[in-house]
């Protein structure tokens, strides 16, 4: 382990150098976020290459493989670089659909894996709600409460993002009905009827969500998901209210008035939908929204919109629930994206997963279930993921990674603006906060050609919305990586424009 | 690691001895499933003890803790014994709600954790649907397909049991609608309407389930769950058809005629419900059932019932889906509980989790989605769990653990019958397959007193149904453990009866 430990200190030193002295030119020449990382991408075959194609064919005898891009040699991945099974190495700006916080094979995670005191946590998965491990409280504190959104003091772990959303919704439903009972005990009629799935035990309640949102793929999460048809087609889903999410015009400073009007229109729709579902006897028990709609197209709204949304939630005495599964854990330059909004008070629930390595949600006291076994399942998450998360959180703090994200992100965004200005018919709406950036291409086909050519030249990126490219790098991305990307992006776009 | 490896071979040798020569008397004197295991339970405090109570109080500032029994020192757990933080050691016959296959800190799992070639799998969690790891196909084959239920050649991993059920339901809905389309392509109206959660894209479809069943705690899984009110109260759930699950009378051989009539009644209800929901324009797209209703009270039915259920499913051309989350992975003495039934053909879907360490489901070809991203989420499970599962599966085969389960189970069941015969007013309906056993107590309060006193004397057990005790030991439980339990059980019951 000695060699790997020394890598870790290198990472810190180099990074600090970047923050203190870095300019784009210096960064390009000197900075590497990880001495073990390759100097740049290396691609020698089509992607997927012959071995990937063979493995895809084999896997296809076991399950549908149409979403598979290529097979990965995770042992050979390092830092911001992903290695495929055909010997190609790509700069990874998509990172397992935005779920790799500090790069591949980070020495701190490898260290944590090898520590004797962690072994029992890896091999004995507990039923956390009944038999929590000795160090569970301290793990919750060190890994989760140490970065909890201000004002939220309760936390529940879950195995994935979808379950976090489903159980958050349940917390809202429980709180709604408790308030409605006004202190009277649960009736035997409620208890009997709920077992049959009927009222009054199982009431008509809904959650308000937004067009183009994505919150997960189980039934309750699909009730608030509207991003793409393969997610929903053929599934019976609840008929819940859906409002428009703002469609901002860019550049923002030229369209301030129009965008304000658009956000007011969407807020008005929210009010209208809440009343409509009240009239349908299916009252809205809460509002769920992504700080930036991701799968739906990297759609941003201004703080004004979210402040307005919170006002509406408060007027109706219902919780505002933020799905920070993709935006959380630092990639916007703040630990939680909603910290950019200057809300009057904390949101009521914040869900997380992906880069947090464990699913779960923070919530306010008033959403805490009073009875046992209400928010419950066998595992309720996995403590071994909190071992890794604690390392991630500590690294973010020690190495001031949020500052790095902000610096790298501004470099990336200015690069994107630059290319967009040179190819206005092809690219538009370069946008982002931190490294959570994206850019629109004139149509879906062209976007897909660009992504394919980028991959062929060593850049792994993802799509979203109808014709957007989304950047979801690790928190360790530096200006030098951005420069590598921009060179290749420029060449791909230039070739396309010939 | 040398010492630990030698433990492993000891385990095998001793076990083989048991199977070949074991009699109850010999077993009691000689057999220990693991040389590192304590000789028996040791309890020195109330349970929860003072340190557990302190930790519960602390955890209660972060989340509701009403379901917590005690805090566990997982480093000190071994084999079939669970150690709490107060220095107590209990024989664990509940094993994290039936989710520990081969005991605590098993040397094979510890070995697998420490292997260099597994490190990348533990620290880099992939988005399996897009970037599967190099060894993914072989892991699926070695860990999952090597034990797939006969006739099911497709498998999909998931993070937990609930997600396995939800996505199985989706596979059924997709297949149902595809058949209804009769080969015509998906229409633009379907695509548009599904994004709004309306028909025809989101059709009215249902899943038929059984009273007292439990299949999970997200909305779609709650639609088929009817076990206990804390699971469902206050939640909007779909109005889907629910049929009675047989209530068998014991002893079975005395009530053969009555039980057959009861099963026919339940099958008739299934038919009736399918027709009723057809008339409601909410057709049944599939049937879900547990081989043994677990949380609902360890309710058994005979092979005749399940054969009849399969016949009904085939008549209506809908899939039969078995939730083997709790019954799977060997504890009934066969790898899958439905292997006891002699079905005419394989069930269409088999869901798993718990002892399988990963969630997921096996399914037949006709349920395979044709398009990409249909059964999908970010992680789709966790390959590191398959590393452990592969060890579990290999150990089951090498050490003939299914035979051991059968032998230990028959010893346990005969012991339960013996006590029940001596205390007929107190205990009834001793039942089980393999070590998947249970016994009823005259009422819930007495049952809870028994469980509390058992814990105080070193036996950890779980409840289910209204007044049942359920046994969910590891696959390594031996006759000698049963003898330890029976001695203590006998003393608790005798004291109670004084």
Please tag this protein with its features.
498 residues, homodimer, Aspartate Aminotransferase, domain 2, Aspartate Aminotransferase, domain 1, 7-stranded mixed beta sheet, 42% helix, alpha/beta
What's the quick description here?
With 498 residues, chain A is of the alpha/beta class.
Structural account:
Two copies of one chain form a homodimer. Chain A is an alpha/beta fold and 498 residues long. Chain A folds into two domains: 44-109 and 401-497, Aspartate Aminotransferase, domain 1; 126-397, Aspartate Aminotransferase, domain 2. Chain A has 17 helices and 14 strands. Chain A has helices at residues 2-21, 24-30, 50-59, 95-98, 107-114, 119-123, 136-144, 161-181, 188-195, 219-222, 229-232, 256-279, 303-315, 383-398, 401-422, 444-456, 479-497; strands at 81-83, 89-92, 154-158, 206-210, 242-243, 284-289, 320-323, 349-352, 359-363, 427-433, 436-441, 459-460, 462-464, 468-470. In chain A, strand 1 (81-83) and strand 2 (89-92) form a beta hairpin. In chain A, helix 1 packs antiparallel against helix 5, helix 5 packs across helix 14 and helix 7 (136-144) packs parallel to helix 14. The longest helix of chain A has 24 residues, at 256-279. At the A-B interface, helix 3, helix 4, helix 5, helix 6 and helix 7 of A face helix 3, helix 5, helix 6, helix 7 and strand 3 of B.
């Amino acid at each position: 382990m000695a060699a790997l430990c020394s890598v870790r200190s290198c990472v810190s030193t180099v990074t600090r150098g970047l923050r203190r002295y870095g300019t784009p030119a210096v960064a390009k020449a000197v900075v590497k976020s990880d001495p073990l990382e390759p100097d740049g991408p290396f691609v020698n075959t089509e992607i997927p290459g012959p071995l990937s194609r063979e493995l895809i064919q084999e896997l296809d005898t076991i399950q549908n493989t149409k979403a598979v891009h290529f097979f990965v040699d995770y042992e050979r991945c390092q830092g911001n670089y992903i290695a495929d099974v055909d010997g190609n190495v790509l700069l990874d700006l998509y990172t397992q659909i935005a779920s790799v916080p500090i790069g591949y094979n980070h020495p701190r995670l490898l260290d944590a894996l090898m520590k004797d005191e962690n072994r029992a946590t890896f091999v004995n998965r507990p039923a956390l709600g009944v038999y929590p491990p000795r160090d569970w409280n301290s793990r919750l504190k060190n890994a989760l409460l140490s970065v909890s959104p201000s004002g939220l003091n309760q936390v529940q772990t879950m195995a994935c993002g979808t379950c976090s959303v489903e159980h958050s919704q349940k917390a809202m439903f429980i709180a709604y009905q408790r308030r409605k009972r006004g202190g009277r005990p649960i009736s035997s009629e409620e208890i009997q009827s709920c077992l049959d799935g009927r009222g009054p035990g199982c009431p008509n309640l809904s959650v308000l969500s937004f067009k183009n949102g994505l919150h997960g793929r189980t039934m309750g999460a699909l009730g608030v998901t509207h991003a793409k048809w393969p997610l929903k087609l053929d599934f019976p889903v609840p008929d819940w209210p859906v409002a428009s999410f703002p469609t901002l015009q860019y550049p923002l400073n030229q369209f301030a008035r129009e965008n304000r009007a658009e956000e007011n229109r969407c807020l008005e729709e929210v009010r209208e939908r809440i009343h409509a579902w009240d009239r349908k006897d299916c009252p809205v028990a809460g509002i769920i929204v992504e700080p930036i709609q991701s799968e739906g197209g990297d759609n941003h709204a201004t703080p004004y919109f979210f402040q307005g949304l919170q006002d509406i939630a408060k007027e109706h005495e219902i919780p505002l629930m933020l799905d920070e599964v993709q935006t959380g854990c630092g990639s916007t330059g703040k630990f939680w994206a909603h910290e950019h909004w200057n809300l009057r008070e904390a949101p009521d629930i914040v869900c997380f997963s992906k880069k947090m390595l464990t699913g779960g949600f923070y919530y306010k006291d008033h959403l805490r279930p009073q009875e046992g076994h209400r928010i419950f399942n066998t595992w309720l998450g996995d403590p071994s993921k909190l071992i890794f998360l604690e390392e991630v959180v500590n690294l973010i703090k020690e190495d001031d990674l949020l500052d790095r994200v902000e610096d790298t992100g501004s470099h990336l965004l200015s690069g994107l603006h630059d290319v967009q200005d040179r190819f206005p018919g092809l690219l538009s709406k370069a946008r982002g906060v931190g490294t959570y950036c994206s850019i629109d291409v004139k149509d879906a086909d062209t976007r897909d050609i660009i992504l394919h050519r980028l991959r062929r030249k060593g850049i792994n990126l993802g799509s979203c919305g109808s014709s957007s490219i989304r950047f979801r790098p690790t928190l360790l991305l530096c200006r030098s990586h951005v420069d590598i990307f921009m060179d290749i992006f420029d060449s791909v776009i230039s070739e396309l424009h010939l």
